[in-house]
Amino acid sequence: MRWRGRRPAAGDPGPGKPGSARPGSGDPGSVEASGPAAIAAGGDVINSPTHVDVYQAVPLPRAEEVDPPRGAPSNLRFGTELFVGRSAELAELDAALAGPGGAVVQAVHGLGGVGKSTLAARWARQHADAHVLTWWITADSAANITAGLAELAGVLVPEMTRSTPAAPGAVPVQERAAWARRWLASHAGWLVVLDNVTDPGDVAELVAGAPAGRFLITSRLREGWHDIAPALIKLDVLSESDALDLLRGVLTVGRPASGPGAGVPTGLEKGAELCAELGWLPLAVKQAAAFVRQAHLTPEDYLELYRANPAAIYDRAARGSDSATIALIWRITLDTLAESTPLAGELLRIMAWWAPETIPRTLPTPITDPVTDPVGLATALGELAAYNMITLSPETISVHRLVQAVARTPDPRDPHRQPADIDTARHHATTLLHQATPADTDDPAGWPTWRSLLPHIDALAEHADPDTDTTTTSLLLDSAALFLHEQGAIARAIAYYQRALASNQRLHGPDHPDTLTSRNNLAGAYYEAGDLERAIPLLEATLTDRERVLGNDHPNTLASRNNLAGAYYASGDLGRAIPLLKATLTDQERVLGDDHPDTLISRSNLAYAYQEAGDLGRAIPLLEATLTDQERVLGNDHPRTLASRSNLAGAYQEAGDLGRAIPLHQQTLTDRERVLGNDHPDTLISRSNLAYAYQEAGDLERAIPLLEATLTDQERVLGNDHPRTLTSRSNLARAYQEAGDLGRAIPLHQQTLTDQERVLGNDHPHTLTSRNNLAHAYQAAGDLKRAIPLLEATLTDRERVLGNDHPHTLTSRNNLAGAYYEAGDLERAIPLLEATLTDRERVLGNDHPNTLISRSNLAGAYQEAGDLGRAIPLLEATLAGCRRVLGEDHPLTKTVRENLEGAG
């Protein structure tokens, strides 16, 4: 039954394209001057006497003549704190720095907070004895580098920093720094750590002028080192296990080995989840653990606080811990970028709403104008990558999840996280995703794009408050839901349909066409999920509203009527389905015309309902006429024409006319391979249908290889858990069973049932069918002890889920009676067969093929019980019905004829 849905169209306009506005640098107390010769005074102006420092030159020793102090002095202030992991990086530093030779320069780069300084301090402390001097310089500015060198000179020649009567005033900082440079240039065996270099140019001259020592550099910058430090180490986040070790270590450090408070604290069950939430970033994990310890919390408590108020957590550190909070260390980087590349910060805020990994590089392309700013996006991405805020590959972008979390969390105190800017970024992130989605969810050519975008749509939906959803958000989620729906991911589709519906109701009201479309689409997903208890009332309400709002003859109203009829059909209520399909077809012929595509779909649906009702005398001519019309209107190769050809072949097959069914299946498969391609889902369906026709013809030598190949292709194209893949697995298991290969059939039935229970749920109609099939396989293996209880349970479930009169429920009743019969329990088999026949005559009609099967089965039971007086007349009546409905050559007709001959 083809579902009539609609992909929504255009979205709402949002904020304009990101511009170049940068965070304000003004301070509330500043005063601005303007005009000719204007003067601004930011406070009181005080006249004071001029003060002049007096410095008397100190005779300095020649740098090359000053030996290194004894005892390998060091100014390392840290490096003894808790340290976990990093064995590979330490080994790299060993290989680069620990060997003999001339000058060696090694740079370690990575995201702020990833542990570069900690790694450098660890290595420096481990190897301090191997160096004549180990000196740490905070190198985030040229001034700080000069100060660090001046301090080194004061250690080598303490007199430089002393003031004496003979030489009042210490040696100026610049002169001391220059002396330290000369000392480094003339000595070997020392180690200088240049920590947090923000501009490679600040250290280039120092490094070039000291050819005999070791420099270990840390920086957030990835680029700019080619002339300074050819060897680079990129430091990434901790492994999951190392991050958890760090968390535990901070929580347990200083705890007594025994007695009260000893050992690992309790409540660490959520420790791994907390580390994952923080992206395994060392600084974040360390600060979280310190906060947990100080406040006597558990990791689960911290997670709740973090999720409820992330802005406060990002800016807060526990007392006595590192004051460089997550928000602060990245704000410094963003301040720098805001001056040179304002777009970088805006781009980071946009990407914060997407998944952290594999963002397509093409996704943010529309935010810049390729004519007026052809290199703006590339420049912004390059700058973010240079500071390790993102990772670039030729095709994708990755952003650390904690960078994203901070960037999308508003904080009025932070110029890079103003609430209005974050709202604008969320809207741009939504619009860019919507613009990137392929228009046709049915077209396999667009599926790779859809699959690359879905993680980012999922992330946006997770991080954005539903109350902030715009019309564009609703359109995006509706489109994603439609793709997921058609791919068989029904549960995910339903969640998106529900959210899109809620947004449309909030934004437009209950009667808006978009709201009604969302309601129709959600009902269709319930239908596909087998949840007819929710689908049918929603379809009925949607139809009523569309009739009231749009009118009885609006195309969407007619589509709703068709969809409701399909749901009645799926529920086994052919008494309501067929009249509604007929009425809908009549209205569509009047309103849209006989040749409108929707009219042709309705004609095909009505024929399919006749077929399900066993009325092949009306189904086949209507399918033939519909196919002729579609070939004329749409062309021989249109996908809907090919679908009608497939449906007609299926009707021939059900009528037992395999002589016409198999060639038509073969033709349809050939055409679909040519028109749609070998991997199109419809092509795979045709392959499966042809295999089933071979199976019905008893040609298992062709059926089984084709079913196996089809299953392999569906697993590759659709995925292992797609409903059609699961159906193919079930079909292959049945073919193995029919071939007598129960050793392969039963495990495959069991696997299919397990997968369907997991993917579709215990009560989905397909799951119930798999349970029935597994029971039948047990029965074929002679294992009635497992078959009968499973058949009984399946019947109970079908009565509860589908209702007593659903065709599948009647099939379960028939199958259970057959198992009782095979077990020799005619006292239970015959009454159940009689009741099933009565119900099938009432529900399906006297001439339905399943009714004829029930009549044949009951006659066989009478015959087995020795009651030929009832068996023979029933067989005679059944044979007459088979000849009239199915024809002389149908397999059921032949079986009944043989049974009658045996009874006589």
TrEMBL record:
Residues 1-44 are annotated as: Disordered. Transmembrane segments: none annotated. It holds the Pfam family TPR_10. It comes from the Bacteria. This is Tetratricopeptide repeat protein. It comes from Actinomadura litoris. The lineage of its organism: Bacteria, Bacillati, Actinomycetota, Actinomycetes, Streptosporangiales.
